Amino acid sequence: MIRMHTFRGMAGFVASALALAVSAQAVAGTVTTDGADIVIKTKGGLEVATTDKAFGFKVGGRLQADYSRFDGFYTRNGDTADAAYFRRAFLEIGGVAFTDWAYQINYDFSHNSGDSDNGYFDEASISYTGFNPVILKFGRFDPEFGLEKATSSKWVTALERNAFYDIIDWTNGHQNGQGAQISYAYDNLAYVSAGAFSKDIDDTEGDSVKQFNFRGVIAPMAEAGNVLHFGVNYAQRSLDDVVGADARYRSRLGMRGVETNGGNDASGVGTRPVFAGSNSAALEWDDDKAWGLEAAWAMGPFSLQGEWMKRETDSAGPQSDLEADGFYVQAAYTLTGESRGYKLGRFDSIKPANKQIGAWEVYYRYDSISADNDVAQVSANFTREADDTEAKVHNLGVNWYATEAVKVSGMYTKVKTDKVTNINGDDDGDGFVMRLQYAF
């Protein structure tokens, strides 16, 4: 288990490195080294590296402070509730050692990643790049599944990724396990990755749950403002002999504040419905599989993207197999004319051309979830009929990239469900989220 004292030691090392870098700039005289010259950069965090690029490190991070209000389906009784929380509060340390080794450590002070036993790490990985363009990666990191997940949370267009990602959260979340991944990139035109992971979930024999992920991308056009992107994804894990395995098909439907860490959420009033499945110890499950297709097109300041996903969970008991599919379609336009960046199978940041007014982006996204279900459920917050369930979510938002580091966002979300309601009987709801982000 990774304890907090580990992080304190790491933080002490970083503090010492920072002090050394600052003192080197502040004290008069000549700074020398016993090897290659050192270059220090302070734009976008602190970066220190040798001129031969054999050694170096960068200290950065991101802070995302959210406030949201929501009503109707999003709350147990349909009344208005709100939430103010840190969606992410990362300290990020990454670097290169001995030319061919890279490392990345991201610690989440908002506690939305990890836990108290394993440390609140979003990532703690080591990569070997000596076989470039083949990269070997080891440690704790998110398995790859989907275009929106591949895009950094700093630069994903909407405030929350699409609603179906919650249904398949195990496919692209590390869940405190560790894994190994091999990836290959052909310029900016093609990308393939495959990984095997050991999750922090054990079966009755003490053997951890094993997971396999695959992602493949081709991009005939692959530069900012000129993108044509296609991708395919697959993930599988075995829940055989796992008592109380979490096979819930549930989603926050774009409104994180109904249940989150990092501050105050709806405090048990928020509705996070289960469209199908259960985590009951009385039920047994077998293979859990997910598929995904992704596509994107960008021309100048306009971009269009979408993903289709499907999940199937095989039953190993008397209950029925589970199945659900979903998709989203998103259109975005930068009013000030800038194009979204693109690199290695994912979208990147928008960099303001005008330093006075920044860059302004508007977008609309439509999410859809459909799940096969034949079991009724009544919980403290929602009611589900013994019938197939659905949800449709509309998201309309604006992003202001005030600088390359500061982003201010607002998003309105409207949800409509079928065969699942809150306790009050509401099958629709509205929500609004605002975010202030600083990334360095």
UniProtKB/TrEMBL annotation:
KW Transcription regulation (keyword) present: no
UniProt xrefs under Pfam families: Porin_O_P
InterPro entries xref list: Porin_dom_sf, Porin_O/P
SUPFAM superfamilies recorded: Porins
Record keywords: Signal
Taxonomy, superkingdom: Bacteria
The keyword Signal appears for this protein: yes
Segment forming the signal sequence: 1-28
Parts forming coiled coils: none
Protein's name according to its UniProt entry: Porin O
The encoding gene: oprO
